[in-house]
Amino acid sequence: MADCEICGASGTLTEVSVAPRPDAVALCDTCADGLKGEVVPEGHWNALSTSMWSESDAVKVLSWRLLMRHAEESWAADALDMLYLEPDVEEWAKSGGPDVIHRDSNGAVLSAGDTVVLIKDLPVKGGGFTAKRGTAVRGISLVADNAGHIEGRVESQRIVILTEFVKKK
């Protein structure tokens, strides 16, 4: 039985590839679920402060990507300040991530095609109208490089909406 390469937990492990290279990292169920955007126990990602020093480049890359997801938290920002990646490893880390996870105002993970409801009246710049609170926006699209933005149609016009002003239906 081996240990998770991120948190060190013993048990059943899943091999997860670290795109775009074929290298893989052995992860416990908690880390694998967290990588997909699911909620992990409080303090679980603090283990990244240790895993980022691994001798495995794939573990370093995955640690960097996960730290970038939490970069607004002081512990992750401190770890990122200390982390050094060789130029080719840094390029690898940036080429596949950080994975962007879109969440609504309540923290629910949003997916392309979901229906969301506006929780606030939103003036639409250049549209000449206000999208009213309670409006359902069906078939949303996710903005690939920005977790805070989604796109959808309101009054037959395609607009960008901040995720902090929607809740998943």
UniProtKB/TrEMBL annotation:
UniProt-listed SUPFAM superfamilies: Prokaryotic SH3-related domain (SSF82057)
Highest taxon, organism lineage: Bacteria
Pfam short name (any one): YjdM
Span of domain Protein YjdM C-terminal: 102-169
Protein name: Protein YjdM C-terminal domain-containing protein
Species whose genome carries this gene: Pacificibacter marinus
